[in-house]
Amino acid sequence: MPLIPLQIPKGAYRNGTDLMSQGRWRDVNLVRWHEDALRPIGGWRQRQSVDLSGTARSMIAWEDNSGNRLLAAGTHDALYAINAGGVTTDITPAGLTAGRVNAGINTGFGGGFYGYEEYGVARQDADTLQPATVWSLDNWGEYLLAMSPDDGKLYEWQLDTAVNAAQVSNAPTSCTGFMVTEERFVVCFGAGGDPRKVQWSDQEDNTTWTPAATNQAGDINIQTNGTILAGIRTRGQSLLLTTEDAHTMTYQGPPFVYGFERVGTSCGLVGAGAAVSVDNGVFWMGRRSFFVYSGGRVQDIPCEVGDYVFSDMNNDQRSKISAVVNSAWNEIWWFYPSSGSIECDRYVAYDYVENIWTTGNMDRTAGVDRGVFRQPLFIASGGVLYEHEVGYNYGSDTPFAETGPIAIGTGDNIMNVVELIPDEKTQGDVNAKFKTRYYPNAEEREYGPFTMSNPTSVRFQGRQVRMRVEGAEDADWRVGIMRLDARQGGRR
């Protein structure tokens, strides 16, 4: 009998029913695909435990003019600066209005009156959900600019650890966020409490905000049904993302300074921290889809795990979703709270070069890409800062990948599998398990784990089989195309 190759396409697929993932990887954790092989993601190690007043949901890394590396993090009621040596300084502005650790309305389990509505049915959309606090952070040269949407003021920290961040003179108040453009304008949105108002300073001067013939300060109300959640730099433009649509902001020079154009509808941002910019464009998560803008117009990104991710999400806490770039692997990670959690405990990652999706479990609330620091830095909900893509240690977790059902029998025939011919880089670092069924809804039987050898003796039978591979601790393993030695075993 010829060997049966298990040629499983790259990436996870978890949409629809179990059978729809036939012949694909379905359930994965802490793995990625690179150069056509399945492998573990890099591990992590603790850099330091940061004593925070709450949960960090925004982070930025930058260098000052002397080459000193700095990190800033914002919680619901405080702002912190951390130097490369791990020294943490509270630079919270005096009189800062505190925000929220969690979104403001409990519409999940335990909220409302017992028996008022049916279990599993969403509550009526009768209240305004107040989002968790997500700071806007950016650098202004070597200085830090920061804004909490619940406070609405623009602050600047000038690197002196003895002096806290201070309000920028003349800047608008009651804002929801800001960004610094490539042309060196500071742009506030939601300015003055108007959710559609965009207001920018004079070029290279963040204290001049009143338009005059001698400066380039200005403002405009964009035409949108939503409210502006975030602004982000991209190649040659800036992009404003609202709860409903996307608008470009392009520098034109005096007298109008900026031109605005709507480039996408029905593509609203799910939360203020859910968008990132890379060379390939701006990527963000919406309410039920993922989107990209790389010039021209916004495009939907087909997502092969979207059904699982959006069904698994705690929508009341979606404002906590945080997007982080992992540029060494051409990936964007979104950390989100699962349906059984109020804190970010899972991730969905997208390889934007190879168009591959993966998912997994991880407690992280914000992060920064490598560049200023040698490795990506992600922070957990408890305030522990980790260096990622270091070694292959994952705490108590184990990298694994499990397929959907794979048909090995034909018609009414069943197959007896006697050997596995592994395609593995480091023999012995991967274990395999197999789960078989005779019919789609029949009882599933599990065999293994089997430690890989060449060949590996196994004994199981069925019409369909799932394969699960698990990596050994602290091992840089690879898995390619496995093959099964199977013989026809009659009918059942």
What CATH architecture label of the largest domain applies?
7 Propeller
Tally of individual domains:
2
Number of helices: 1
Mean pLDDT value: 93
Give the CATH H-level superfamily of the largest domain.
YVTN repeat-like/Quinoprotein amine dehydrogenase
Major sheet attributes: 6 strands, antiparallel
> What would CATH call the class of the largest domain?
Mainly Beta
In angstroms, what separates the terminal alpha carbons? 20 Å
> Would you tell me the structural class of the helices and strands?
mainly beta
- The name CATH uses for the topology of the largest domain is Methylamine Dehydrogenase, Chain H
Portion of residues in beta strands equals 35-45%
List the uncertain runs: 107-117
Walk me through the structure.
The structure is a single chain. This protein has 1 helix and 40 strands. Strand 18 and strand 19 (237-242) form a beta hairpin. The strands form 10 sheets. Strands 2, 33, 34, 36, 37 and 39 form a 6-stranded antiparallel β-sheet that branches. With 492 residues, the protein is an all-beta fold. It is elongated and about 85 Å long.
Question: What are its keywords?
Answer:
mainly beta, 2 domains, Methylamine Dehydrogenase, Chain H, 492 residues, Jelly Rolls, 1 helix
